[in-house]
Specification:
- Four copies of one chain form a homotetramer.
- By secondary structure, chain A is of the alpha/beta class.
- The first copy, chain A, has two domains: 125 residues, Rossmann fold (3-Layer(aba) Sandwich); 164 residues, Dihydrodipicolinate Reductase, domain 2 (2-Layer Sandwich), CATH 3.30.360.
- The first copy, chain A, starts with a strand and ends in a 16-residue tail after the last helix.
- At the A-B interface, β7, β8, β9, β10 and β13 of A face β7, β8, β9, β10 and β13 of B.
Chain lengths: 349, 349, 349, 349
């Protein structure tokens, strides 16, 4: 174990944090060397997460950059918005690699961040340094990055599903409507009426319509792919399940293309990338088909009657939408195989 | 009880049928006089539905129009597609009023029915006679109808949410995209991999994209409202819950209107109608808020950035989407109060 | 409406409170005249419970005995433990009838209450006055009661299932083991890790084993039925569902009796009581078969190999386990039909 | 890969079969060389299980012992009861090792099997040869076994929880009552009313009370541990979740022992065994804490008032209750590390 890259996890008691622990346990080149929590430092992590009993006997460390430096080579920041903007610079200065799972470094323009997040933005020097780790699109920049900004869960599902068609010019990007649905774990472990079992079970609800903080992150990449500024309609819903995101996307066809052509376009676009799977004609993916895994599965339905294509993209929000993608990015940053430690078959049923 | 209108229910062992039994039990002017099932005739209905034990001790009758005539004044047909097209004419000839919950009389053009349902259409003479019972839109025709075609569950949620804005000319009807989600009970009681618990629980999936048989029914009414032929993009998803439908609808604004203006437009449109409720500004309805009731709740989000409005409409698929709306139609056909027997408060949580 | 008995509900924003509103809406002789909440006074109840929109436009009143007296004839106390012990005496002194849904008046001995609830007990004079409203067992005392203590949800399911066999001497009461399971709504609307969706969904857990505050209430009635002091093993589990309780009970047979004999014993015991239903031989009830209704359904399995009987008893925890039983008790207190306003068919599926 | 032990899976399209595929994918010494299905031979397994797309491109083989011999060293039989009794002898004769996940070889007495399973028993010569693979109890016999009978899911949870206390003489084995609860996946992938989503969701039900075919398997091991014939009360319930089993067990204390003493007894009993975890005092395990993993977690509650101990034991029914335990047994049969390929951290939440 001594020669493995040592990883510290800040925010270990959140769902993103424990998922990092689960996935890194199986990693061939990295190991968790410190689990860090500002609120529960000094207690065994298994007290709050008994599923880690006997497997992960560690006691939670406090947040201390010097101590982190002594214990780790790379730091995953899995803390709420506003924490990484302060911590990342300190850690980078100490020579640590940083992978941030929050939104703090996803938006290069401070005013945009402040508008959508309602918090002060990070230092612009670091915003500029940060690489947006949607590695199937920006993989070249990820290799060798020191400060990696891991994409949001909704943007990951949406962008992997929409970008190839936009880049190819097959759909009108300004017509894009994204109807997204997420399991409840995306809301984190905090207890509130919004995460209360009796309120969500046997219920389906929309929330933050046109107001979700993932919108600017989505539009930034869409605009980059389209070569012009794009605004998109983006709706989020809460599904009575724990894990999984589906983005159902609608766009007007700019060219007359068949489902089979879409399938081939996407298979070529993602060739050699281990985590995007394209369904065959007539088949659309369901969220359970990627549960527990780092896959993003995509399917298509072209409708000649309306001249629109429907694109369905699914991920596990805690894996490809958070911890798994972060490890995928670590793999690229360290020049390891992209899928090292991530070759889980989805858990089905 | 003797002076109550007697109702027979064909297809009593389906979910629509038992929901009719549940709701009619509380009706002041009607009573269930015969529960009919082709497959289980001769057995007590409580054998298959123990929740009816001691309440509804009746034995299931077979399908025999003459016997039905002797026992009933009105017949609810809650059978699979293809049954009502054969039975309704016989029952009407015997002087019975008929309310059909299947799709057999929803499409006036036989070829359209045959294209979407893959079955022979009903006799055109009866197709013409049938009144489409979306009573908030076609209420005048419902009063006095002899053959009532009860709308589908998806069309009910969709059309109540879309028609007022289209009639007012506030949205471009050709831009309409309907992203619909349903609980599993909409698929009926038949056992299949598609209704298997372990396949649906903790899963979210799209199905029949652009192919759902409710599409022509929706487009027919949309076209009627728009005054020209409309094709709409319509997607259906299965939610891991038993009851509830949400239609999330997207359309381009034809006029610059605020959420508050939409709210007022809809409140006026549905004034005096007991079962449509419009949420105040900034609030969208969730499916559980109508569970077990005949309400259709609607909310709006206008997005100036994209020039689109998002309309969210929810119903309980078995009540307003089936049995409840059928009883609402019976009330109008019989000239009773529209909400007789339907004043249930939704069951929450 | 003017001649209806006026009911005030203290704790209207809890699940027990809104369920009282739902059920009383359909009551022929009573109406809700005041909804009261200490925490949300002055706001419309539909703000927190949009399912009540347009149906129940009332604004929440504060807790003021004088105002309650001016608005109500009877008061339902649906507040947390410790509230009723203080409020009930004030309300009784003003001549109001009081039905308490908490545990404050269920245990006649103050020290037992204080041991299990960890709070000061009510004034012994009022503890003595209080009638325990398990009306199928203590119905005679309920008629004419001024202070009614509504049984807990677990005790209701357990005692209705166990008492007839104990009274008949057919089982050894000291052998009784109760394995109980509840939906999450029993924990109330308070947000905590213990009611968090992601923690409970796809999970099954035991809690408060041998420590649940309903144990002394159960043992009190069991002892009363047995004619001697009984201690029982009682375990509670949380089921990933919103509503429903099942008590699975095990006891050694004191006499050699068949399932059919148990069925007959119980049918006789509950003859004329509208809310207990006994399943036929070989059939056990499931929680969904009573959902939304005031029924308690009971079934039996006798095992000659082990000399034990298994008794399964199910209720809806919010109806027969709380609000429904409270109204049933009101009906008896007021000398109305026992099932007035409670003739709901369970909602299935 | 060539030097890995080759495994064939008969019944690959059942839930046990696909779980074997998922787990073996991560195995260091074994690989899946043939996926076999009598009903779907010739089609790609990913057609029925899209979660295997791109990962497991194999086409299903038919059932042909000669072909199996050419492709495999060991065969997992994950077929319904009655298949293994016929196939296992043929495979053994060809020199293959066989691990049977059905009940066909769990009961050494043919008449007992025939009574509980209603099918002809296997050849007694093979019944005698079969080793019952509850390896924490019978590990010595498992090493080197040729025909391994993998325990049932309920027996695994029950016996790991009950045997140490019985062997130590701390509880009266004849007082044992097992109240077991299972997720729906235990019923397999077959579609029926009993696995229908709308029937099981928001429902909790008991089934096969005193009649479950796992009873004789449980009693056989209990009797072995007690040194005398034991009959046990055993009840099974269906929980609205996909995975997980909890056995809540009740027994009279034969000695006055504390929870802490139970904890120490069990920790010693399972010392060195990687898959049994004992919770500390005051903590009971929940099913989600072992989800997706091969762990069996156990906790205790001693009640001095009643003189009984409550033992709670949880597993993932498809892993420790089926595929995982089968691989654990393979590891022992092949003299590999007991936990090879099974070091998954449970998936939480």
């Amino acid at each position: 174990m001594g020669t493995k890259t040592r990883a510290a996890i800040v925010g270990s008691t959140g769902y993103g944090g424990v998922e990092l622990i689960r996935l890194l346990q199986a990693h061939p080149y990295a190991e968790v060397s410190s689990v860090i929590s500002s609120s529960s430092a000094g207690t065994p992590i298994a007290d709050g997460y008994p599923h880690l009993s006997d497997i992960f006997p560690g006691v939670l460390d406090g947040v201390d950059p010097k101590e982190i430096k002594s214990k780790a080579d790379v730091v995953f920041l899995a803390a709420p918005a506003g924490v990484a903007s302060r911590m990342a610079p300190q850690l980078l200065e100490k020579g640590l690699k940083v992978i941030d799972l929050s939104g703090d470094f996803r938006l290069p323009q401070p005013d945009v961040y402040e508008h959508w997040y309602g918090k002060p933005a990070a230092d612009p020097a670091y915003l500029e340094k940060a690489v947006f780790g949607l590695s199937e699109i920006y993989g070249e920049q990820v290799r060798g990055a020191e400060l990696l900004s891991n994409p949001g869960c909704y943007p990951t599902a949406t962008l992997l599903g929409a970008v190839p068609a936009i880049k190819a010019g097959w759909i009108d990007p300004s017509s894009l409507i994204v109807d997204a649905k997420s399991g409840v774990s995306g809301a984190g472990r905090g207890a509130s009426l919004g995460t209360h079992y009796s309120e969500l079970n046997e219920n389906f609800k929309a929330y933050k319509v046109n107001k979700h903080q993932h919108i600017p992150e989505i539009e930034r990449v869409l605009s980059d792919a389209a070569g012009r500024d794009i605004v998109a309609t983006f709706t989020t819903h809460l599904v009575p399940m724990t894990r999984g995101i589906m983005a159902t996307m609608y766009a007007s066809l700019a060219e007359d293309r068949t489902e089979q052509e879409f399938i081939e376009l996407y298979r070529q676009f993602y060739e050699g990338r281990p985590f995007v799977r394209i369904r065959p004609e007539g088949v659309l993916p369901a969220t359970k088909e990627v549960s527990g895994s780092n896959y993003c599965d995509i399917g298509f339905a072209v409708d000649r009657r309306t001249g629109r294509v429907t694109i369905v993209s699914v991920i596990d929000n805690l894996v490809k939408g958070a911890a798994g993608q972060a490890i995928q990015n670590l793999n690229l940053m360290m020049d390891w195989e992209e899928n090292a430690g991530l070759q889980f078959i989805p858990m089905y049923p």
